[in-house]
Amino acid sequence: MCSIIGFNLETVEYRNVSFTVWDVGGQQRIRALWKYYFRDTQAIIFVVDSADVDRMEEARNEIHSLVADAELHDAVLLVFANKQDMPNAMSATEVSKALDMHCIMNREVGFTTNFLIE
């Protein structure tokens, strides 16, 4: 894995398919740099902290800003509702509603809570 200004880059090969993955992080100070990584993006995986209710509006605004960007018009969007095991976590349905996922049109969208990162 290569780390670049707070971003991580990794190439993953699986069943004769090569993926270049950019982990760009969500810190406010680096979001302005996201746009430099949009070219040729085929998928966006957006991870949301299900237990951080106070930041849901911020997450919603970022997701809707991303899907509105012309360079990401054809990118598939997958939202992970992370930290479902936390005591005060919002359910997947609550997170989906808080993010106004129903408003995202003309795009393939996935939403999940079940994933494991080693």
Automatic annotation (TrEMBL):
<dbReference type="InterPro" id="IPR005225">
    <property type="entry name" value="Small_GTP-bd"/>
</dbReference>
<keyword id="KW-0653">Protein transport</keyword>
<dbReference type="GO" id="GO:0015031">
    <property type="term" value="P:protein transport"/>
</dbReference>
<keyword id="KW-0449">Lipoprotein</keyword>
<dbReference type="InterPro" id="IPR024156">
    <property type="entry name" value="Small_GTPase_ARF"/>
</dbReference>
<comment type="similarity">
    <text>Belongs to the small GTPase superfamily. Arf family.</text>
</comment>
<feature type="binding site">
    <location>
        <begin position="82"/>
        <end position="85"/>
    </location>
    <ligand>
        <name>GTP</name>
    </ligand>
</feature>
<keyword id="KW-0813">Transport</keyword>
<dbReference type="Pfam" id="PF00025">
    <property type="entry name" value="Arf"/>
</dbReference>
<dbReference type="InterPro" id="IPR027417">
    <property type="entry name" value="P-loop_NTPase"/>
</dbReference>
<protein>
    <recommendedName>
        <fullName>ADP-ribosylation factor 1-like 2</fullName>
        <ecNumber>3.6.5.2</ecNumber>
    </recommendedName>
</protein>
<dbReference type="GO" id="GO:0000139">
    <property type="term" value="C:Golgi membrane"/>
</dbReference>
<dbReference type="GO" id="GO:0016192">
    <property type="term" value="P:vesicle-mediated transport"/>
</dbReference>
<keyword id="KW-0342">GTP-binding</keyword>
<keyword id="KW-0547">Nucleotide-binding</keyword>
<feature type="binding site">
    <location>
        <position position="26"/>
    </location>
    <ligand>
        <name>GTP</name>
    </ligand>
</feature>
<dbReference type="GO" id="GO:0003925">
    <property type="term" value="F:G protein activity"/>
</dbReference>
<dbReference type="InterPro" id="IPR006689">
    <property type="entry name" value="Small_GTPase_ARF/SAR"/>
</dbReference>
<keyword id="KW-0519">Myristate</keyword>
<dbReference type="GO" id="GO:0005525">
    <property type="term" value="F:GTP binding"/>
</dbReference>
<comment type="function">
    <text>Small GTPase involved in protein trafficking between different compartments. Modulates vesicle budding and uncoating within the Golgi complex. In its GTP-bound form, triggers the recruitment of coatomer proteins to the Golgi membrane. The hydrolysis of ARF1-bound GTP, which is mediated by ARFGAPs proteins, is required for dissociation of coat proteins from Golgi membranes and vesicles. Involved in endoplasmic reticulum dynamics during embryogenesis. Also required for adult germline function.</text>
</comment>
<keyword id="KW-0931">ER-Golgi transport</keyword>
<keyword id="KW-0333">Golgi apparatus</keyword>
